[in-house]
Amino acid sequence: EVQLVESGGGLVQPGGSLRLSCAASGFTVSSNYMSWVRQAPGKGLEWVSVIYSGGSTYYADSVKGRFTISRDNSKNTLYLQMNSLRAEDTAVYYCARDLYYGSGSPFDYWGQGTLVTVSS
Amino acid sequence: EIVMTQSPATLSVSPGERATLSCRASQSVSSNLAWYQQKPGQAPRLLIYGASTRATGIPARFSGSGSGTEFTLTISSLQSEDFAVYYCQQYNNWRAFGQGTKVEIK
């Protein structure tokens, strides 16, 4: 059974950093394209970043230069390093598996999400 | 950047009735369009991809249609568990979501 479990969210001050983790089971993270998607409180969904099976990474303009997506193949875990956090980064962050290998894809499996709150 | 616009923002429907949700893309996305259902406190669930292909385990009362810039999600006979927020997502050019349509009980 495919499962994605996020962790690492919490309260952080503006300008601070946080690293989110997404532990996968039932499939191999490194063989798939994996994304982070976020949802601000009461708002819609926003794609944040993707890492390809080959290791290439891409980001939404809103987080480029501040966030870094990575993975640990030995732990079958996806990460999102978030630096220079802003109030507008406050959201539930979901990791999700891309259904396709391509520059665009729907997401067939999602984690339960982890809440990041940026506030002083 | 492709902008996805969903309408209406809220749809009030009685159980057993049909619900029709719309999604429009600012430029053609071919058939690279997905629909998701999200209930409060839960992650989104993939319903439809390729504009009209139901994902694994999705009931036949959910159907998708359209191509290019105009898409529709139809729920043929609303069940109690279908009241939720629905999002469309294009994946023709990276990934972008619509703002959602809330389907509420009339």
Helix content of chain B: under 10%
Overall SS class of chain B: mainly beta
Could you state the oligomeric state of the chains shown? heterodimer
| Stretches with pLDDT under 50, minimum 5 residues of chain A | none
- What's the count of strands of chain A? 11
Main β-sheet of chain A, in a few words?
Answer: 7 strands, mixed
Gross morphology of chain B is: globular
Shape of chain A: globular
SS-based structural class of chain A? mainly beta
The total of helices of chain B stands at 0
Average pLDDT rating of chain B: 97
H/E order of the elements of chain B?
EEEEEEEEEEE
Q: How many strand segments of chain B?
A: 11
Radius of gyration of chain B in whole Å, from Cα?
13 Å
Descriptive key words:
heterodimer; A: about 120 residues; mainly beta; seven-stranded mixed sheet; four-stranded antiparallel sheet; globular; B: about 110 residues; 11 strands
Secondary-structure blueprint of this entry?
The complex is a heterodimer of chains A (120) and B (106).
Chain A: E1 3-7, E2 10-12, E3 18-25, E4 34-39, E5 45-51, E6 57-59, E7 67-72, E8 77-82, E9 91-98, E10 107-110, E11 114-118
Parallel strand pairs in A: 2-11
Antiparallel strand pairs in A: 1-3, 3-8, 4-5, 4-9, 5-6, 7-8, 9-10, 9-11
Chain B: E1 4-7, E2 10-13, E3 19-25, E4 33-38, E5 45-49, E6 53-54, E7 62-67, E8 70-75, E9 85-90, E10 96-97, E11 101-105
Parallel strand pairs in B: 2-11
Antiparallel strand pairs in B: 1-3, 3-8, 4-5, 4-9, 5-6, 7-8, 9-10, 9-11
In short:
The complex is a heterodimer of chains A (120) and B (106). Chain A contains no helices and eleven strands.
Explain this structure.
The complex is a heterodimer of chains A (120) and B (106). With 120 residues, chain A is an all-beta fold. Chain A is 0% helix and 51% strand. Chain A has strands spanning 3-7, 10-12, 18-25, 34-39, 45-51, 57-59, 67-72, 77-82, 91-98, 107-110, 114-118. In chain A, the strands form 2 sheets. In chain A, strands 2, 4, 5, 6, 9, 10 and 11 form a 7-stranded mixed sheet that branches. A 4-stranded antiparallel sheet of chain A has the order 1-3-8-7, with no helix packed on it. Chain A is globular and about 40 Å long. Chain B has strands spanning 4-7, 10-13, 19-25, 33-38, 45-49, 53-54, 62-67, 70-75, 85-90, 96-97, 101-105. In chain B, strands 2, 4, 5, 6, 9, 10 and 11 form a 7-stranded mixed sheet that branches. The N and C termini of chain B lie far apart (36 Å). Classes of the chains: A mainly beta (120), B mainly beta (106). At the A-B interface, β5 and β10 of A face β5, β9 and β10 of B.
